[in-house]
Design a protein that fits this description.
The protein is an alpha+beta fold. Helix content is 32%, strand content 19%.
Length: 738
């Protein structure tokens, strides 16, 4: 019992619910335990996948640090937040002043195969008399087990036979630290310049205490002397030792509230929030397209965006550079270097597919260098006005591309999502080639043999009926993606709050600390584990009709509504109007002038949740087993089967057995009703009784949701502070087709 034991669960469970430092109980609810870091199985990942994992960790960590550090910027009367209160010390630079991701060799990417655990908290209370007993280690508990028996009652008053139970309450803090209860406190000693643990004793000299649990509020419980019944204090209080260490000599009475911990059941959600993220894992497919998203490739990104959404532009070609440099002696060397870089790119791209993985990684670096060299020459020629630009993007789009990494979290970055959607089209949606007799994507209006009805003569009839239903739902396309490849990873945790700021806690905002998982031993060193889960399950792809969405957006009368030029797709306007969206969506403003882009995102997000609710109902799948991915500039979203257990074709079966019934149910007015009624409508039209999902399923933390964008329910989203209600998208369709 003194050593950590190992447990096995599904990979997704190990990476989330049973991730390191989480509290849990085994089946039956007997005995609380805490998960400990364990080195999982070594996982082989492609270089682009590894790069994207660390890019996401760096982005989320930096965003977390900046948000937490600025939590009290608007109130100079409150104590200054220190960097160590915001993120794990390993995520700070050597001077402990700024965020800095450790070197990649400090992390261990692994597949979660098992997790270690130990009993915790090691605190016990007698059900009979309330006597309290705690232990600092499993070894001490092992030595004392013989005394935790009915025949060895330690109550000095001998009030009854002891019947011990594990105390299910712990103290937690937004620093990420937790503490088992004990009759005393951690405090800062100015004399010793360190944090000291002080056990209290009663004035009568007794050091045995009972825990008085008669109050309904666990924060009002208190210790009382087991000998004389005198309360130790009006209620039990505890200080966070980590925060005491950080504040140190600056500890004053006005900072006492920052170190106070909160009593909570270990089962409460506030006791632990795992930090994870996911992205579409294209592996080695479409990497040439995805490289446009790398730093220094903005010009190439502009060219791709211009082609995708109909902006007036043409890519720079070798002939363009030759013509621009023709007869100009000052750019002869530039032309030669440009041609050399182009030859290098061509040579590497012809050879790279035939190389081994180790050589391929090195050649990718050379390829990036060649691309960067060629782009540097083009940029220099443009700056010297020798080469004129061929892309005429609106200023707003250029600005959003330039600042996209500071404005948008990766999962909300409209330009990244536009490129990912283009990659999804090239690798799945537009691929007609069959694998094992099945296409990677099947539109429900063009069924293959696997999804067609058993009576093949009825295929045309079913397809026509589906087309009619999709038209009424305002959908351009809907179909099955047979393998939607995702990479999900978890790397850390927080307590008390899943976001960087705990609002108005005891009179002020508190920084919530982002902690890495405790390190594990690996290759004769310690490294921080990152648990990676790859999956390729079925998914349903949906794309809305562009002309209907445009009509609906115009009807909203948003002040920043855009006009499109000839040949431009709706994404051209949306990319111009895109609003900043951070990882935690904590920068969203409620306004009488609501942004059109946030309205569009709310429509797609709400539609996705509506589909998820019905998919769960008609397939029997739990809502927590579904997930979503949204492509705003393409008016599209994907609802996928989440998990690493064997996929038995649940979504294929859903369509074959109840596809038409599900679409018909989505059209019903009941689909957008809420049991909470007007209360939900007045607060924005989204609550757990209608559109909200488990947070593990929702990409946006249940923000930017409203039934009002789907159906006219007499309300509007929370972001819109105008007085009048809006018309829903499904009602716009009725008007347009009347």
């Amino acid at each position: 019992m003194a050593k950590a034991k190992s447990m096995n669960r599904s990979r997704n469970q190990l990476a989330t619910a049973y991730a390191p430092e989480s509290f849990f109980t085994f089946e039956g609810g007997m005995g609380a335990c805490i998960a400990r870091s364990a080195a999982g199985e070594t996982i082989q990942l492609s270089e682009p996948t590894i790069d994207l994992i660390f890019e996401r960790i760096n982005e989320l960590g930096r965003a977390w640090f900046n948000a937490a550090l600025s939590a009290r910027d608007g109130d100079p009367t409150k104590p200054r937040i220190l960097p160590g209160q915001c993120v794990d010390q390993a995520l700070l630079n050597p001077s402990r002043t700024e965020f800095q991701l450790p070197g990649l060799d400090r992390f261990y990417l692994c597949r979660p195969s098992h997790m270690e655990y130990t009993p915790a908290p090691l605190t016990f209370v007698c059900r009979t008399c309330g006597l309290f007993q705690d232990y600092e280690s499993l070894g001490r508990l092992d030595d004392d087990l013989k005394y935790l028996t009915p025949e060895n009652c330690r109550n000095p008053k001998k009030k009854g036979v002891c019947d011990w139970e594990q105390l299910d309450v712990i103290f937690v803090h937004w620093s990420g630290h937790w503490e088992a209860a004990f009759p005393g406190q951690w405090y800062w000693s100015d004399r010793d310049s360190k944090v000291i643990k002080r056990y209290d004793s009663c004035v009568c000299g007794s050091s045995q205490f009972r825990l008085n649990r008669r109050s309904a509020g666990i924060g009002d419980w208190f210790f009382e002397c087991a000998a004389c019944d005198k309360p130790l204090s009006p209620k039990w209080l505890q200080n966070d030792r980590d925060t005491l260490r950080i504040i140190g000599p600056a500890m004053k009475s006005d900072r006492l509230t920052e170190v106070r911990m909160q009593a909570t059941p270990y089962r409460a959600s506030s006791a632990y929030y795992v930090k994870s993220d996911l992205f579409i894992d294209f592996k080695d497919g479409s990497q040439q397209l995805l490289t446009r998203l790398r730093p220094g490739r903005d010009t190439e990104l502009k060219d791709v965006i211009a082609r995708l959404y109909g902006f007036a532009s043409q890519p720079i070609t070798e002939d363009d550079v030759k013509r621009a440099c023709d007869g100009k002696s000052e750019c002869t060397k530039d032309l030669l270097d440009y041609l050399a870089a182009g030859n290098a790119i061509q040579t590497i791209e012809l050879q790279i597919d035939a190389m081994t993985e180790s050589l391929r990684a090195a050649m990718r670096d050379l390829l990036d260098t060649a691309y960067n060299n060629r782009q540097r020459i083009v940029d220099d020629l443009r700056q010297r006005q020798i080469l004129l630009p061929k892309t005429d993007l609106p200023i707003a789009v250029v600005s959003n591309i330039r600042d996209r990494q500071s404005k948008f979290a990766s999962k909300f970055d409209p330009f990244r999502l536009a490129i990912e959607h283009a990659a999804l089209k090239s690798t799945r949606l537009d691929v007609e080639k069959r694998t094992n007799g099945k296409k990677p994507y099947v539109s429900f209006t063009r069924l293959d043999e696997d999804l067609a009805p058993e009576d093949k003569d009825k295929t045309g009839e079913v397809q026509n009926a589906t087309r009619s239903l999709l038209d009424k739902l305002g959908l351009e396309d809907m179909g099955l993606i047979r393998e939607f490849d995702l990479c999900r990873f978890s790397f850390g945790y927080s307590r008390m709050e899943p976001a960087p700021i705990l609002r108005d806690k005891r009179g002020m905002d508190m920084p919530v600390r982002l902690n890495l998982f405790p390190p594990v031993r690996q290759n004769d060193g310690t490294r921080f584990p990152v648990y990676v889960v790859q999956q390729g399950n079925e998914a349903i792809y949906v794309r809305l009709k562009e002309e209907l969405v445009l009509e609906w957006l115009r009807d909203l009368d948003c002040p920043d509504m855009f006009d499109l030029n000839a040949g431009e797709r709706i994404g051209a306007g949306l990319l111009s109007a895109a609003q900043p969206m951070s990882s935690f969506l904590d920068n969203l403003s409620e306004s009488v002038t609501p942004p059109v882009y946030l309205y569009l995102y709310t429509l797609l997000h709400s539609y996705s949740h509506l589909l998820m609710k019905h998919m769960s109902e008609y397939s029997g799948l739990d809502l927590g087993s579904l997930g979503e991915y949204i492509f705003p500039a393409d008016l599209a979203f994907v609802v996928y089967r989440n998990g690493t257990t064997m996929d038995l074709g649940n979504l294929s079966a859903l369509w074959r057995n109840a596809g038409s019934s599900m679409l018909t149910a989505m059209l019903s007015s009941k689909a957008t009703l809420c049991g909470t009624g007007s209360l939900c409508t007045e607060r924005g039209g989204a609550c757990p009784d209608c559109l909200m999902m488990p947070e593990t399923s929702c990409i946006a933390g249940n923000k930017l949701l409203s039934r009002s964008v789907l159906r006219s329910v007499g309300g509007k989203p929370r972001l819109d502070k105008r007085s009048s209600p809006i018309r829903g998208f499904l009602d716009t369709i009725k008007t347009s087709t009347a």
